[in-house]
Structure formats: structure tokens, C-alpha cells
Amino acid sequence: MSTPKQIKLGFVLFGAGPGYDDWRHPDAVVDASTNIEHYRRQARVAEAGKFDFLFVADSVFITERSSPHYLNRFEPLTILSALAGATSRIGLVGTLTSSYTEPYNVARQFASLDLISGGRAGWNVVTSWLSGTAANFGKAEHPQHETRYRLAAEHLHVVQGLWDSYEDDAFPRDKQRGVFLDPGKQHQLNHKGEFFSVRGPLNISRSPQGQPVIFQAGASEEGRNFAARHAEALFVEAGTLEATIAYAEDIRRRATAFGRAPDSYGLFPGLRTVVAPTEEEARRKYKEAQSLVRIEEALKQLGVPFDGYDFSQHPLDEAFPELPASAYASNRSVSERIAGFARDNKLTLRETALRSASPREEFVGSPVQVADAIQRWFESGAIAGFNYVESLPRQLDAFVELVIPILQERGLYKRDYTATTLRGHLDFAVPENRYTLARRTGAAA
Amino acid sequence: MSTPKQIKLGFVLFGAGPGYDDWRHPDAVVDASTNIEHYRRQARVAEAGKFDFLFVADSVFITERSSPHYLNRFEPLTILSALAGATSRIGLVGTLTSSYTEPYNVARQFASLDLISGGRAGWNVVTSWLSGTAANFGKAEHPQHETRYRLAAEHLHVVQGLWDSYEDDAFPRDKQRGVFLDPGKQHQLNHKGEFFSVRGPLNISRSPQGQPVIFQAGASEEGRNFAARHAEALFVEAGTLEATIAYAEDIRRRATAFGRAPDSYGLFPGLRTVVAPTEEEARRKYKEAQSLVRIEEALKQLGVPFDGYDFSQHPLDEAFPELPASAYASNRSVSERIAGFARDNKLTLRETALRSASPREEFVGSPVQVADAIQRWFESGAIAGFNYVESLPRQLDAFVELVIPILQERGLYKRDYTATTLRGHLDFAVPENRYTLARRTGAAA
Prior knowledge:
2 copies of one chain form a homodimer. Chain A is an alpha/beta fold and 445 residues long. In chain A, 39% of the residues lie in helices and 11% in strands. In chain A, strands 1-2-3-4-7-8-9-12 form an 8-stranded parallel barrel, surrounded by 5 helices. A two-stranded antiparallel ribbon of chain A has the order 5-6. Chain A has a two-stranded parallel ribbon with strand order 10-11.
């Protein structure tokens, strides 16, 4: 992977926070995940901080045990479209499952967001790991892991095909000659595959960035192959810098085998900071937040990547328990990583749960300490930047105010936007329309 | 149907216009249907004119013969979400097909738009009449007319059920007690029907208007029954005032049989004006616009409700032709109305095509003449208001500037908004959550 000269940053719109008890913080906006004003404010702060994109996670199955943020929240395409008008430069990346959607509808909604925003859209492709999801979509069974990735690859292939339905000069819109469309530059996809048959054309043209940017977070074997083959921005939750470097090398090996150039993709680990003007204050804030975490909520949160497994049936202060195979089946890579870490470090169930609910201590401290940690990660050469998640209310504001200027001072971060599209921010080339390319080169589209 | 005291108005976001040659007008914004600034401006003018809602039509199948507006345009949920932030009071009504979507996704996107906009969303339920649509969604055959309506009824039933997943007080969000959700007020739908099985709950709560408003345009036998049973705002394209009155009586008879109260729904015929400070100027503008219409484009436009039938194979100046049964199969009510009108009035094919491409002359004239015609229609008691479509560039502006003040002066139109939700604008009651109602009354939900 090539290392860009400067750090790229995404910001995750995550309601009052990803932790099950984050909403209990005295300063937390309790209805943040359905509060448009809260998100508008965050979007503007992130844009003032020259972030490259906003990111909205998603899932389409909940129970009463789900995270407060997941119980009640905006749908990604609608909230991002709403925020398109509140911002002018920042990218808009939404998560949508390939397992329970129609490629024609997905292609269209992202293309529409892309045009509305002047070329700022990205699609984070997920396959939905929670097995209960099937019941919301009339399916007897949730597709198996391997099937979901095969389906995702075909789904994405169709969506990207539909995004090229019109060549960039398909619409002369010549009033005098009365020519609106050049029909030779409108293309049917005529896809017939294992899961989908889609004729096309899509009823919307390309944006200034050509196509929305593809995001993905592949951790399993199939997931890594999917990411290395198809994704442009890769989310990674490997935990430590060492694990992230190993993940990056693994992805580079796979991507090279798929014939991809190193400058065509980049890695984004998550980043949660607790930063304050002094280290002492940061540590105090961190401890305060920790004190709000209830073990029973942390256990629920721990259960999520284990397909909602109920950990409360096990003793808290004994070793991380043996689990049935079903608990590892749907999100094998993340669940096995957590269980492996707990066993390797002889953590109790309580310690494992509390650790999963907290930011890494490496990013807790003074502005210079946090900037140093970020620089250390970035200069490893493994990553393109970070996807920032607030671990405390207004940490985004503190980060923009205290840390960004240091990174700018060090030449590690842009002082202003130099592009207008997400693809431009991330230094990815605009993909030429496949039919234009075919005509130009004489090859088949 | 009860007649509200004042006229309600919707405005259709229709790019450069519904006519195939509308984009050729010298003042037309040629890329209007993918121009966010154009739509933002129109939305603001409509809101300045105290319109009750913006409306976005839709279809999910095009060919190179489709209307310029349909060839390339924003998707309804994304453009309406973007416009939510550019406006503060006006309703936001989007069209989405029930034939090629998942109820869980549809429920969620409209509920999200509804929360983002503070209770201003509406769903126009359509079943997609173009038989080619099936090919974009991997279906061997487009479902038959009757099947589509049965499916639509079940789809809507599921969506409305999901919209009640949370009772209005389901989220105590009590930081001190640590209670975010009251799990007794989160409900699974557990729907199992002919077409859909959906467990629920939906992952989003209700808006201030309870549920999005249901719009529909039923013209056929099944369509009228669907509209009379389920729709709150009914679009009608009966053509003349007399036919509109007859349609309204038919709907009232059916709605009463379904046990509905007359104040729970209202009719909205389309309205296209050509208004100018003087009658002479309006007539001149009308003629200018007429002169831009090319007969070959008008024939394509005529073909739309005939499932894309190619009328160019018939002589222009002979009687409206006999058509194969397939041309009438998918949108029987509209296609038969047009053919019947042509035969009854002994119109040639050319006359039929040009007539379909033009506004009604009744609404061409001076501000007082147009206001008189609107008043005449409204005082028939058959309608709640109109769904306004621009027939010329900036006709919305002219209408707001010249006609609205006359209607206000006559007490027929509000001087300002009195509500903040779409349901409030349309005088429809907020539907009580079904589970709250059941608990209150002791009945089953």
C-alpha cells in the first residue's frame, strides 16, 4: 500500500457513542442518534476540521438487547442526504447491506446522493452478520458467511455496472437541435448471474467523481479477499498497531495478487481519543467515563460480534468462557480475535467486557501525546488515516481544536481541502466509464 | 368526502417539466432533474407560497424512449432528505414502488425522512405499471395488475405495522436510573402473509406526526379500492371537473363501505397553469410553449401509459388507432380513458398526442381567471386541493406571486402555516400507536 503524504480522516456519526452506556454521560445528547441538529453540528465541526468523510454504520436487525444507538437511529442514505446540504466538501459514506437489498435500488440511491452532493458519496458494503436479520426480510435462513461474500461480490459488480449506465457526455441537452440524450451513450447492463439478473440502464448519470467510493471492513478470509479485491477504503479493527501492520501486509499481498495498484486503496483503523489541554485532565475524563460503564451493559455489547450471545449466564470473575460454535459462526474473525486476546492475556469475562467498552489508553492524553500516537501509527506506513469515533461528548470538538493544529503544524494534515469530491480527498483516480474506455481502447466493456 | 375550508396545495418536482419537449423552452433549466440548486430554489419558492407538500414521482425502468425527465433524475428519498434541510414547514412526499422493494427498508427510509424533517414525510404508494420493470429486479415476469395491488396492500400493512414498533414513550432515556429503553414498549410485528414475512421491530421511532401520510393514485377498479381503503391523500387525473366529481363520488361510496370517515382523506387533481399579469400575455406564453412540442416526442409521451407502445407506426392524421390488448394491460384505467376520449371526440392520433402534452386551457389566463377556475373546482366540494405541476419555467413563481394572494384575499388559502407536520397541514389526525391504543382500550393490537 502506498502511504499518502498526509493523514486522511473520517468521522463516524454514532449517536451518543458506540458504548452501551455512553448515553449516560452527563454531557451526552441522549437522543443523539435521531437528533438531526446534533448530527448537523457534528458534520459542521468535522468539516471545519477538514475531515475527509462522515461515516454512518448500519444494521437491519435489533432486539431489546441491542445498543442504545442501534435501537433507534436514522437510516444512512436519508441522514447523509440531509447532511449533504449542511456541508459542502466533506465526503458522505453510508453503510448498506448487500444481503437484503436490490442492486438497482442501491445503485440508484448512492448515485443520487453522489449527484446531490457534487461527488461526495461512498458506499460501505456489508453483508450483515446477525443471523436474525433474515426474519426481517422473509427469508427462512440467513445466508452462510461464504455465500454472503459471493453474493456481495455479485451485488457490487451489478451496482458498479449500473453506475456506468451513462457515459459522461451522454446528455447533449441541445435545445436548438432538440437532442436531449445521445442514445448511443446510454447502456444496458444485461447482467445475468448466480443471484441477480438486472437489465438496466440506471436512470441517473455519473457524478464529478465518476462513481461513489467503495468502503469495506473485511476481517475473515472471505472478507479480506473481498476487501483486497474490491474496496478502495478499508476499515480495520485489528486492535494494536502491530496487528494493523500485519493486516496491511496481508491485504497488500492479496491486492497485488488481484492485480491492484498500491495507490488504489488505503486502510483506516478506528480512532477513539480522550484528549484535553493537559494529560491530567484527559485521564480524569477517561476515568469518569469508565465509571459510567455497567458490567451488564458491557456484557451485552461484548455479545454483539458473537451474534448476540448472552454472556450474563457466565461467572464474571472467571476466565473467558467456552462458547458454543454458533456464537462464532456469523462474525468469526472479530469474535475469535476477542476470545483469543482474552485467553492469551488470561483475562476474566469482566475484564474482557470492560476492555471492549473502552478507548485504547494510547490515545488518552494531552494534545501532543495524542498527536504523537497518531503520527506513530501513520508513519508505520500501514494506514491511510483513521476513522474517528467519539468516545466522550464533544471529543470531536476537542480533537479539532487541540490535535488537528499540531498535525497541521507537523505537515501531517492538510490546512484546507484541495478537492471537491470524496475521491479527490482520498487521492483516488476517477474511474473512466467502462464503455468510454472500451470505445477508446477497442476492448469489450 | 369532507371539504376543508381552505385549498391544500402540493408541488411536483418535475425537472424541466413533464412534457417530452419542456426542456427545450428557452428559459428551461435543461439539467433540472439532476440539479440540486434548481430543486432547492423551487422548494423555497413553494414554501414561501405556503404549499403543503413537495411531491416526487418515480419509476424504476427506462429505455432510450423515456421522458427526458425520467431518463436522468434524483431518487425520491435522497432528494427529499436533502430538501428537508433547505425547508422547515413544507411536507415531503416521495413515490416508491411496493412491487420491487422490501417493506423493512421502505418503512425505515420513510420513518427516517419523517424524523429528519420533524414529521413532514409522506409515501406515495405505486405498484409500477411498466412491464419492463421486472427485468431490473431479476423477475421473469412483472406481476399482474390484480396481484400488484394485493401485494401493495400487504406491503403497506407491514410498513404501517413497522412504523408502530415503538410506542411514543418507549424511550425514557433516564441517565440516573440507567434506563434507555422501556422494553415493554418495543414491539415485534411478526407478520406472516402471502408475500412477506417480517419480524420487526423497526429500528426507528415515530415522528411528531405519528406515521408518514399515505398518498396514492388509484384509477382502475383495484386502484380505486386500494385508494379508498388505504390512502389519505388521493391523486386524481380524471381530466375534467365533471369526471373529477364523479371520481370523488365513487371514492366516497367505496371509502364509506370500508368504514372510513370523510375527514380522513382528500382528493388532489393535478394542476398546470399558464398565468401572467394579463390574459393576452398568458395566451402568448401558452402558444410559445405549444410551438416547441414536436409530434414525434408527443407520440412517445402518449405511449407511456400504453406500456411504452410505439405510436409512430400509425398515420398521424387518421383516427386514434386500434391497439393490441397488451398496450392496455398494465395501466388500463389511464390508457382506456385517453383512447375513449379520443374516440368520443373523434380526435386524430396527432390531436390526441398534442392534447396529452398540454395544460388544460381552463387554467391559462390572467391571475383572476386562474383563481376563478381554481375556486370553481374547489367549491365543487369534490377535492381537498391540487397537486401543482409547472407547465412553463418559473410558472411556480408566477403562481405564488400572482394567484396565491388572490386566493388568500378570498379566504380560500392560508396566509401562513398553522402546523409543523404534513399531517397537520392536511388536517389529518395523528394515528395513535396501535399498541398504546390496545392497552388503553383492552383490545388486541
